[in-house]
Amino acid sequence: MNRGSYLSDETWKVIANPADEDINKLGRNLHSYNLSTVGPDEEATDLAIFIRERNGEMVAGGSGVLWGAVFELEKLWVDDSHQGKGIGSRLLKALEREVYQRGCTIIHTNTFSFQAPEFYQKQGYEPFGRVPGYGSKGAFEKVFLRKELT
Questions:
Q1: Domain at 47-148, CATH class
Q2: Strand, helix or coil for residue 117
Q3: Which of 27, 40, 44, 62 has the fewest CB atoms found within 10 Å of its own CB?
Q4: CB neighbours (10 Å) of residue 108?
């Protein structure tokens, strides 16, 4: 490799199913850059809520990142055996209340067209973008939704 040049081709490698350690390093480095740009007062906070059976088994949960006035809902899940009982709606409302109390005014998330876009719309979320082409035949979309909290 020549000094002052870009990395040589030998250092470039596409990896399918990369190690968690490598992905975590990417996240840490990006987080460090973000903090160096916006300052530590704007540090992101991971938040999660879980619903468990008395035996400790998780039956539902949600998690995301609160950064400034925005909460990015990354995961929301209810076990199949508990769906249709209003648990998802109550779980989402609990997250909304918590992040609102922490200064959040906007929540955004994404879901696939075969998952829950209608569920989020019933909860007051508005679609703001769609990306087609997911799945082996490109039959699915990723739907991006947002909601303003007041």
A1: alpha beta
A2: helix
A3: 40
A4: 17
Judge whether 84 and 114 are in contact, CB under 8 Å.
no
- Report residues of the chain scoring pLDDT below 70: 1-10, 41-42
- DSSP for 80-91 reads GGGTTSSHHHHH
Candidates 111, 102, 110; CA nearest to 67 is 102
Q: Are 142 and 131 in contact (CB under 8 A)?
A: yes
Domain ranges of the chain: 14-43, 47-148
* Dihedral sign from CA coordinates of 129, 143, 124, 104: negative
pLDDT per residue over 43-84, tens digit each? Answer: 788 999 999 999 999 999 999 999 889 999 999 999 999 999
The answer to whether the CB of 100 falls within 8 A of the CB of 111 is no
Which residue(s) pair with 93 in the sheet? none
